[in-house]
Design a protein that fits this description.
Strand content: under 5%
Oligomer: single chain
Number of helices: 3
Largest sheet: none
Length: 101
């Protein structure tokens, strides 16, 4: 019984059983098998496309993390620079610059 659970097996069963109900049910079951195979093929196409997209964009996560790391580093450098600019300068000042600060 290798074809017991395929559309071919249902077709063989319809040839053995001669009642109208058996034939109608066999036709319905074959239609279900056909729809099932169409859905499987459709989903296989979608799965292949998803796999293609995964392969194409696989390294984007690493690239985005690197970009964010660079942005954080630039932000820290800017904060240090702003901190240095906002500090009161100390040290020797010539007499003409004493009143400017």
């Amino acid at each position: 019984m290798p074809f017991a659970f395929t559309e071919y097996g249902i077709l063989h069963l319809a040839n053995v059983l001669h009642s109208d109900i058996a034939r109608k049910e066999s036709i319905r079951i074959i239609e279900v098998f056909v729809r099932m195979w169409k859905m499987i093929n459709f989903h296989q196409g979608i799965l292949k496309k998803v796999d293609m997209l995964k392969a194409k964009y696989n390294d984007h996560d690493e690239q985005l993390l690197l970009i964010f790391e660079y942005l954080n580093q630039m932000e820290k450098e800017r904060d240090i620079e702003l901190d240095c600019q906002s500090r009161r300068k100390i040290g020797f000042r010539p007499s003409s610059q004493e009143h400017d600060v």
